[in-house]
Amino acid sequence: MGHRWFLLLFFFSSFSLLALSQTADELVNKNLEAKGGIDKIKAIKTLRMTGRIVLPGGLVGSAGQENMRPNEVRETFTLQGMTGVQAYDGTSGWQIQPFGGKKDPQLMGEDDLRDLLIDADFDGPLMSYKEKGNTVEYLGHDIVDGDDALRLKVTLKDGDIVYYYLDPDSYLEIRKEVQEFIRGSVKENASEMGSYKPIAGVMFPFYIASGPKNDPTSWQTFSIDKIEVNVPLENSEFAVPASLKKEAPKK
Description:
With 251 residues, this protein is α+β, with helices and mostly antiparallel strands. It has helices spanning 2-35, 38-42, 110-120; strands spanning 46-54, 60-68, 72-79, 82-88, 93-97, 102-107, 135-144, 147-155, 161-166, 173-182, 185-199, 202-212, 220-229. The chain has a 13-stranded antiparallel sheet, with helices on one face. The termini are far apart.
């Protein structure tokens, strides 16, 4: 009898895990379809976003982001005549942070690079997640700003975790939370997105607010004015500057 109950328990446990897995896959597929479908997403090879960023306290600057497949990214932020840069060329990350008096390029350490690597993933962690070594779980319903949301947990290949909150009607992301595990500590950031518009048949958010998960008062907002796709971009725009190449890890 005990053996029989064990087999039944194993069967139902396996069935439940399979059902949850199928639900997660269904939601991922619905999310990708809501964005425009895999074919239209993959048809975009390069991306450029420009807009206005508002910092806590009301400081206003301009910001931009460029992406090129498969995983190159360059982000810029201009405030009071100074421009900061963070970029990843597919192997190494580097930055220029003039606001702290550092006008020369510097290589980024692993800790600083974590956020940028998520931005560098051209299609995001959900698309082709199995091939990327990620796992996805459906955690059920949750509440975002008083509204219902569907919650997905994405465990990245490096062990960091991204929680996506999907609108139950549109299946587009309305909130994202990131947990990064750095040398025994946990860094948690969150972002909320909205004002979706189609560009080349793919839905993009034109409003993003982000910052520390537990301190919304210190969040910054990025209002995107323009998104361009398949614009001419060169690898040199993302590449580690020549002054740092001796320090950069070999490809």
